[in-house]
């Protein structure tokens, strides 16, 4: 495939996005087309309106003035000591700042950490910011990222600037943007991996950050790379899933390593990324991602927020048309192979993100550390940074809300484990706690029906006191249908719900079972709606207890 667009392709792209004649003053404050160069956002909005669609209010905000051009408004509000109102908050999210009232009268700042990899000095800096300008803690998210919470009205832009000093710009981590790119946390250190994804993640991250058209999406967008290693990445829950595969000889493309391209994952809407049959040459991943994004930008729904994700464009068009449009933009057909062309890959071990493991570099180990549902104090993060600086080298966040310390010399593993223990952290977890994830919940998110992190901890305490599971299981608690904690892919998935108890409404969950990802890929099924939070323990213990009694030899809970 070619490295850059030809003149002819550029003309095609221009026509593709321009869509219609812009002279009709279709947009509020629209400038004449010949005075303002058409960009992807303007063209897509015009096309929507030309087709008779009414833009949602968020699109009108973007049309007035692009949110990236409104940083000064954030600074002005901070100088006045006030938080944003209504759609001002939507604008702030383009810069990584979320006003999270009424759950908390403060900002949350969501960082952007491509591939989840941090150096010790960056982590130390984040801990300092969390302590000086936030609530004194930082939380690992389910996108291998960090969030700093409880930031005052006057300090939002200062947090963003301080992160910038660390080389971490949280631009586009909220609103209608491409979120933190996730990837195998063991990239480059994993003997089992097919591809070290660090370079492509870095390249795509910078491509996104430096391509203004890619801040023109109709809705948020997730991208993940799985290098084929030992830790699950849940890449099939992303809008674009790149999964490293080896293509065998005899299938019309040169044998070797590629990324299998799957599209439209959004498990909160009960859909995994669908198989396209496309295999992307490793060097073309950024260009293909760019083309997919541009087709989505041009044709995604801007009239209904609930139908604006990529999945719905694929539903509307069908996969073949989407691939054809992507190929037209690229100016070349994408290589496709049948499933039998792919060599059998390595299946990651469930809970492979926990514990001490040998790296592919002789004599070095990575250490998977369990966090209490992602939250560590600034002092703990500073301690982790000190250990990494002294002994290992890097901190790698995972989508399982924990982290790995990589590059630990074998002889110093006990020292690392002991130093972590002094911080109150462990490299061991029960088969229940190792895959326990929870979204922010109503302690910090206005959408949540329940206090997910608190209830997750209570549930794990209850189960660990009564059961020993023979195999790892994953338990996901999510506060609302946005499903940040992916409840549909948990062996046990809990979706926040209000539950009637007499005259009262209490916090609780809809209980799902049987979900999974990777080789266990399946959407969990609802078996009991509206379970009060204090009835979860006995109910889930009963379920798992039944499994323990009735299971066949070697049978996992997922197979049960
Ligand atoms: Fe908030 Fe819902 Fe996401 Fe939980 S799943 S953090 S409640 S938006």
UniProtKB/TrEMBL annotation:
<feature type="domain" description="Nitrite/sulphite reductase 4Fe-4S">
    <location>
        <begin position="175"/>
        <end position="330"/>
    </location>
</feature>
<dbReference type="InterPro" id="IPR005117">
    <property type="entry name" value="NiRdtase/SiRdtase_haem-b_fer"/>
</dbReference>
<comment type="similarity">
    <text>Belongs to the nitrite and sulfite reductase 4Fe-4S domain family.</text>
</comment>
<keyword id="KW-0411">Iron-sulfur</keyword>
<keyword id="KW-0479">Metal-binding</keyword>
<feature type="domain" description="Nitrite/sulphite reductase 4Fe-4S">
    <location>
        <begin position="437"/>
        <end position="548"/>
    </location>
</feature>
<protein>
    <submittedName>
        <fullName>NirA family protein</fullName>
    </submittedName>
</protein>
<dbReference type="Pfam" id="PF03460">
    <property type="entry name" value="NIR_SIR_ferr"/>
</dbReference>
<keyword id="KW-0560">Oxidoreductase</keyword>
<feature type="domain" description="Nitrite/Sulfite reductase ferredoxin-like">
    <location>
        <begin position="357"/>
        <end position="422"/>
    </location>
</feature>
<dbReference type="InterPro" id="IPR012798">
    <property type="entry name" value="Cbl_synth_CobG-like"/>
</dbReference>
<dbReference type="InterPro" id="IPR006066">
    <property type="entry name" value="NO2/SO3_Rdtase_FeS/sirohaem_BS"/>
</dbReference>
<keyword id="KW-0349">Heme</keyword>
<feature type="domain" description="Nitrite/Sulfite reductase ferredoxin-like">
    <location>
        <begin position="105"/>
        <end position="163"/>
    </location>
</feature>
<dbReference type="InterPro" id="IPR036136">
    <property type="entry name" value="Nit/Sulf_reduc_fer-like_dom_sf"/>
</dbReference>
<dbReference type="InterPro" id="IPR006067">
    <property type="entry name" value="NO2/SO3_Rdtase_4Fe4S_dom"/>
</dbReference>
<dbReference type="InterPro" id="IPR045854">
    <property type="entry name" value="NO2/SO3_Rdtase_4Fe4S_sf"/>
</dbReference>
<keyword id="KW-0408">Iron</keyword>
<dbReference type="InterPro" id="IPR051329">
    <property type="entry name" value="NIR_SIR_4Fe-4S"/>
</dbReference>
<keyword id="KW-0004">4Fe-4S</keyword>
<dbReference type="Pfam" id="PF01077">
    <property type="entry name" value="NIR_SIR"/>
</dbReference>
């Amino acid at each position: 495939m070619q490295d850059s667009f030809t003149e002819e392709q550029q003309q095609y792209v221009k026509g593709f996005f321009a869509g219609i004649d812009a002279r009709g003053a279709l947009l509020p404050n629209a400038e004449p087309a010949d005075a303002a160069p058409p960009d992807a956002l303007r063209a897509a909005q015009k096309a929507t309106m030309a087709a008779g669609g009414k833009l949602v209010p968020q699109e009108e905000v973007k049309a007035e003035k692009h949110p990236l051009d409104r940083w000064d408004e954030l600074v002005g509000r901070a100088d006045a000591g006030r938080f944003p109102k209504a759609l001002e908050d939507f604008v702030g999210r383009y810069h990584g700042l979320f006003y999270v009232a009424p759950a908390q009268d403060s900002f949350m700042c969501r960082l952007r950490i491509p591939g989840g990899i941090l150096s010790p000095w960056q982590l130390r800096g984040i801990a300092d910011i969390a302590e000086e300008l936030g609530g004194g803690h930082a939380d690992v998210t389910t996108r291998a990222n960090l969030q700093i919470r409880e930031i005052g009205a006057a300090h939002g832009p200062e947090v963003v600037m301080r992160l910038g000093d660390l080389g971490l710009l949280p631009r586009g981590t909220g609103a209608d943007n491409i979120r933190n790119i996730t990837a195998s946390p063991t990239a480059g250190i994993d003997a089992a991996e097919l591809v070290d994804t660090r370079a492509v993640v870095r390249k795509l991250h910078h491509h996104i950050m430096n391509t203004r058209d890619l801040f023109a999406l109709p809705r948020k967008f997730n991208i993940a790379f799985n290098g084929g290693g030992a830790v699950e990445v849940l890449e099939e829950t992303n809008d674009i899933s790149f999964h490293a595969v080896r293509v065998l000889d005899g299938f019309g493309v040169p044998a070797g390593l590629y990324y299998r391209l799957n599209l439209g994952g959004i498990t909160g809407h009960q859909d995994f990324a669908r198989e396209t049959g496309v295999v992307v040459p490793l060097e073309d991943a950024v260009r293909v991602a760019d083309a997919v994004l541009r087709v989505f930008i041009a044709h995604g729904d801007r009239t209904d927020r609930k139908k604006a994700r990529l999945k719905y464009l694929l539903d509307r068009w069908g996969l073949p048309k989407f691939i054809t449009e992507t190929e037209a933009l690229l100016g070349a057909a994408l290589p496709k192979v049948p499933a039998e062309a792919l060599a059998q890959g390595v299946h990651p071990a469930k809970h492979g993100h926990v514990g001490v493991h040998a790296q592919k570099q002789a004599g070095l180990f990575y250490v998977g550390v369990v966090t209490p549902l992602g939250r560590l104090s600034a002092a703990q993060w500073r301690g982790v940074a000190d250990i990494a600086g002294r002994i290992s080298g890097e901190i790698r966040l995972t989508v399982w809300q924990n982290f790995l310390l990589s590059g630990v010399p074998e002889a110093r593993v006990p020292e690392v484990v002991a130093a972590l223990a002094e911080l109150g952290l462990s490299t061991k977890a029960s088969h229940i706690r190792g895959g326990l994830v929870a979204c922010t919940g109503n302690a910090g998110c206005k959408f949540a029906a329940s206090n997910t992190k608190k209830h997750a901890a209570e549930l794990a305490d209850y189960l660990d006191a009564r059961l020993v599971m023979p195999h790892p299981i994953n338990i996901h608690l999510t506060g609302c249908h946005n499903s940040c904690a992916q409840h549909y892919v948990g062996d046990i998935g809990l979706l926040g719900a209000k539950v009637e108890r007499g005259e009262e409404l209490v916090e609780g969950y809809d209980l799902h079972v049987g979900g999974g990802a990777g080789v266990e890929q399946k959407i969990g099924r609802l078996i009991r709606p509206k379970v009060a939070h204090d009835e979860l323990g006995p109910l889930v213990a009963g379920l798992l207890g039944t499994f323990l009694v009735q299971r066949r030899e070697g049978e996992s809970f997922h197979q049960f």
